[in-house]
Amino acid sequence: MFIGKGLEIERRAFLRRSAQLAMMGGAASYALDLAGLAEAAAFSNSGGYKALVCVFLYGGNDHGNTLIPFDAANYARYAAIRGTAGSEEASGIALGRNALANTVLATPSDQRLTDDITYALAPTMPRMKALFDAGAMAPLLNVGPLIQPLTRAQYDAGVVPRPAKLFSHNDQQSTWQSSQPEGSRTGWGGRMGDLALTSNTNAMFTAINATGNAVFLSGQTAVPYQVSSSGATLYNPLQTGRLFNSAAASQALDTILRSGAGNVLAADYAQVNGRSIQFGTFINDALRGVTINTSFGTGNRLADQLRVVAQLIAARGRIGVTRQVFLVSLGGFDNHDGLIGTHEALLAQVDFAMDAFYRATVELGVASNVTTFTASDFGRTLSSNGDGSDHGWGAHHFIVGGGVRGGRFYGRAPQVSVTSDDQVGQGRLLPTTSVDELSSTLGLWFGVAPSELTSVAPNIGRFASPDLGFMAPASTATAAANR
Q1: What is the phi-psi region of residue 25: left when phi exceeds 0, alpha when psi lies from -120 to 50, beta otherwise?
Q2: For residue 400, what are the CA distances in angstroms to 39, 440, 448?
Q3: Would you state the torsion angle of the CA atoms of residues 99, 101, 105, 109, taken in this order, to the nearest 10 degrees?
Q4: Are 452 and 112 in contact (CB under 8 A)?
Q5: What is the C-alpha separation between 181 and 189, in angstroms, rounded?
Q6: Among the four residues 71, 225, 266, 419, which has the most C-beta atoms within 10 Å?
Q7: Other CB atoms within 10 Å distance of the CB of residue 350
Q8: pLDDT less than 50: residues of the chain
Q9: Contact (Cβ atoms closer than 8 angstroms) between residue 2 and residue 163
Q10: Sign of CA dihedral 146, 208, 136, 330
Q11: Is the dihedral of CA 431, 130, 355, 350 positive or negative?
């Protein structure tokens, strides 16, 4: 069983709040003011507006060529395992050391990483390097799904539970987003949304998906509201009441789109359709009043998604929200071959998009109250399978925002090795920081009460602390301009 009996997701709080919502009637999930339930939610909405933005990199990002060993000794180990691109060796996916000189991340004087390793970002990520230098970006090292702390000896002996279906794309995407493999009904972003619903006048805009369907934003009560890169998707025949110049045809289409057809998936789909139809015009009207001068460029799908997220944040007052969770994504990271070139181009898109979004939050005066973080199916093998890498487990990720204690590293740096005890073969990292610890740290900053953390991160009780320390205390944030 994936979640231990003693640490199953606490459901009593959700059931209590769901019952209260039910008593308010079916419209409660749409536009009613839910502030009357705030006390029951055990959630703090102090400090003005706050938002979490998950940037999911689909396919399994190759962390080994995202955050690269740069000091001479560790780079030599990296290059020996991966081979130099263009060499005649069997493997050839190591980036050249000279290309990394401009993206070296200075290790703070009070930190000492494993084997005195110094890291550099991929050469196509100069903007993330600048954010690190400015104290607005922090790398989280070797993070991945865990049920409890796990050693290599325990992994080999099979005596300690570990996440189900490791190295599977669909299952590990779900495990990262929900704490369970494929088939999970709720994600930890949605479970935070459940707790935050009562903070928002228009609760249906608590969880907003700017990309394809994913479990991350689904809660027990919270349902993600989906937008496109240009705003809400409008069903024009339904907005005008005419389809093929026929009111009857328009009504028939409306009925089909809202019909649950008697099964759970169809009911969920119908609910999403219903919300889009009912509130699309409202969202687009709110966005029309927004001006953002920060450039998001063109031809970058991730930047397009983050642009609309920035616009929605700018319109937060009109929309009626003080707490939101967003999901954006970029695909193409399953680089079993052709890693060199393809991967750097993808990281360039991530670099540009995340920097543009951060600069937009600065322009809007909410940089300290918006936190963006990357996630992915899994990391990848340090060893090469020719000119790419295979599915792994732990990986390095980034947290960006004005409320981040940036310019330093969090978690434990792994050894650069395919034989050490912090990997499980071929350089697949055995995580030393859990996704539960990541989500709990973000949750505490977001306003989740300590007593509710197991609702968000079901395994957190098995780890030493629910706070990894990469978020600044709320008292240090500049919240005055964020209301």
Answers
A1: left
A2: 31, 16, 20
A3: 150
A4: no
A5: 16
A6: 225
A7: 25
A8: 1-40, 87-90, 237-238, 241-243, 475-483
A9: yes
A10: positive
A11: negative
pLDDT at 30: 36
Query: Residue 448 has what pLDDT?
Result: 97
Give the pLDDT score at 280.
84
Rounded to an integer, what distance in angstroms lies between the CA atom of residue 192 and that of residue 439?
9
> For tokens 């009613």, what's the residue?
32
Residue recorded with tokens 């230098």: 133
| Beta-carbon count within 10 A of 189 CB | 30
Fold for 5-66+120-482, please state it: Alkaline Phosphatase, subunit A (3.40.720)
pLDDT in tens, 119-145: 999 999 999 999 999 999 999 999 999
Distance CA(463)–CA(282), nearest Å, equals 43
Q: CA nearest 373: which of 205, 120, 136, 195?
A: 136
Question: What is the number of alpha carbons within 13 Å of residue 279 lying toward its C-beta?
Answer: 23
Q: What is the pTM of this model?
A: 0.86
Rg (CA), the chain: 23
Domain ranges of the chain: 5-66+120-482
pLDDT of residue 35: 38
Helices vs. strands in the chain: H and E counts, helices first? 15, 12
- The span from the CA of 455 to the CA of 10, in Å, is 5
CA neighbor of 360 nearest in space, from 420, 313, 327, 322: 313
Strand ranges (DSSP E) for 104-206? 104-105, 119-121, 137-144
Burial class (CB in 10 A: 0-12, 13-18, 19+), 7: middle
User: Among 207, 257, 206, which Cα is nearest to 236's?
Assistant: 257
Distance, in Å, from the CA atom of 12 to the CA atom of 358, rounded to the nearest integer, reads 37
Amino acid identity for residue 221 in this structure: T
- Rounded to whole angstroms, how far apart are CA atoms 404 and 400? 6
Strand partners, 391: 380
Which two structure tokens, joined as six digits, stand for 348?
């360039």
Q: How far is CA 162 from the centre of its chain?
A: 22
| Crossing angle of the two packed helices 188-196 and 435-446, in degrees rounded to 10 | 20
pLDDT value at residue 26: 38
Q: Element (H or E) spanning 279, and its range?
A: helix 264-288
d(C-alpha 11, C-alpha 13), whole Å? 6
Bridging pattern class, strands 370-376 and 395-400: antiparallel
Q: Which residue has the tokens 């400015």?
A: 134
Which residue is listed with tokens 């031809």? 299
